[in-house]
Give the backbone structure.
Amino acid sequence: MDARDRDVDGRARSARPRDGLGRPLAYGKAGVERQPEGVVRSPAETVREAQRLLDAGMPFHAHEVFEDAWKSGPEAAAPLWRGLAQLAVGLTHAARGNTVGGARLLRRGAAGIEGLDGGPYGVDVPGLVRWAEELAGRVADAGPAVDAAREAPRLAT
């Protein structure tokens, strides 16, 4: 019998608690509440919830909010949400100390949204591209891990 944790649909899903940066903790340890998956939010709710999580130093959880928008929203908006998810994961890696990987993901996310219109969502695309490039430059050469809350970007103008 497979002893892995499973969700209600039988898919393998770790039930281990997670810290604020999404790292798994030992069973029984106190962690932060996980973001529910598959939540359909309006674009404004997505930006608001992701900003709240970024400000709280929880970019991994913000990435999950962006991922929900990417997967449930209109296809035309997918590049924006995917790029924002990559920026959040880049900040996550930089905060975990994986600064080389963090810099790569920050640059990938910036390239993914560069030139996109933030549209009715109010996303400050040019500002986020500048933020990501600047942070990637600081951490690219295996600089010290960053404080996720202190480095959190402003998503909207």
Remarks:
- The chain has a mean pLDDT of 87.
